[in-house]
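Q: Given only this backbone (312 positions), what sequence would you predict?
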């Protein structure tokens, strides 16, 4: 437990999927009289349990987890709304003298919670017009327009990611500034200790393959089928989640189930690399090895790192 002399502060546990963040977050919350605040954008959705590797109640070890299961699958994700909710939880815990432990691999959500980051508003008319253009012309044409208006943003957003391209063009039109001018810097709102869990790529790839196999064995296809009846296919954000998107394609007859599983593995490996690159750009993240041969020592190394920061 945290000592009386230690000042509570925010802890973040970040890194790529399958690195071991969830278990480490539970351990730190147990040791530091805290609660886990979810920072995985897809674990915010009710019913998306197997495909997001959401911890079961026994796996949470008695630690309260906040911001799980708060949105229906039909709701579009909102980083601004997440920021509001996460800061309410953080402020409450700090006021109680307890430790918020943010756990997740959604980089913008983590930064939105702990850093000075303002989100430009939205204009329904501008958004609707851009979405019509996306439907008519496809993401390639809009990405080319984005490249002309904001080359840095175009390099950061995949040409196939129509939703993010539309948002970037919307922000440019509303603010008159490049989309990258609104991207987060490193100005902190909270005193935070940021821990990154590092796993060598070959081992991480193996873990991802094993995790996807276990998800299928645990009933991911049935979970997606049930969520489809609740509107998953119409959900702008949830329907694109890794695993869910691929299973929806299989259920629609666009591919076989085996092909959906193989594509989930490939897409998750690509996503893990993007996660790693995002967090590596932040010099405040202190990396600890989560490889198999050092996994047992990881919790205590992380706790030592936190204790040193508190007494520094």
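A: Predicted residues:
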């Amino acid at each position: 437990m945290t000592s009386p002399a230690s000042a509570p502060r925010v802890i973040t546990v970040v890194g790529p999927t399958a690195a071991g963040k969830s278990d480490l977050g539970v351990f730190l919350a147990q040791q530091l009289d805290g609660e886990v605040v979810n920072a995985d954008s897809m674990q915010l959705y009710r019913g998306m349990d197997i495909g997001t590797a959401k911890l079961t109640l026994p796996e949470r070890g008695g630690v309260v987890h906040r911001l799980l299961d708060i949105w229906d699958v039909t709701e579009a994700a909102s980083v601004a709304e997440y920021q509001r909710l996460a800061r309410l939880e953080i402020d409450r815990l700090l006021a109680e003298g307890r430790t918020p432990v943010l756990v997740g691999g959604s980089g913008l959500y983590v930064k939105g919670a702990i850093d000075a980051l303002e989100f430009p508003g939205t204009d329904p008319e501008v958004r609707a017009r851009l979405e019509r253009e996306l439907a008519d012309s496809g993401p390639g044409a809009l990405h080319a327009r984005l490249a002309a208006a904001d080359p840095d943003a175009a390099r950061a957003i995949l040409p196939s990611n129509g939703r993010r391209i539309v948002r970037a063009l919307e922000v440019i039109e509303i603010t008159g500034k490049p989309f990258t001018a609104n991207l987060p810097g490193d100005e902190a709102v909270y005193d935070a200790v940021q821990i990154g869990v590092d796993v060598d790529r070959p081992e991480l790839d193996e873990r991802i393959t094993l995790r996807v196999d276990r998800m299928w064995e645990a009933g991911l296809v049935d979970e997606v089928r049930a969520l489809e009846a609740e509107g998953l296919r119409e959900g702008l954000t949830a329907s694109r989640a890794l695993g869910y998107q691929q299973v929806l394609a299989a259920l629609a007859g666009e591919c076989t189930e085996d092909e959906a599983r193989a594509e989930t593995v490939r897409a998750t490996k690509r996503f893990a690399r993007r996660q790693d690159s995002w967090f590596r750009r932040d010099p405040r993240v202190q990396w600890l090895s989560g490889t198999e041969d050092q996994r047992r020592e990881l919790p205590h190394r992380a706790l030592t790192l936190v204790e040193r920061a508190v007494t520094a």
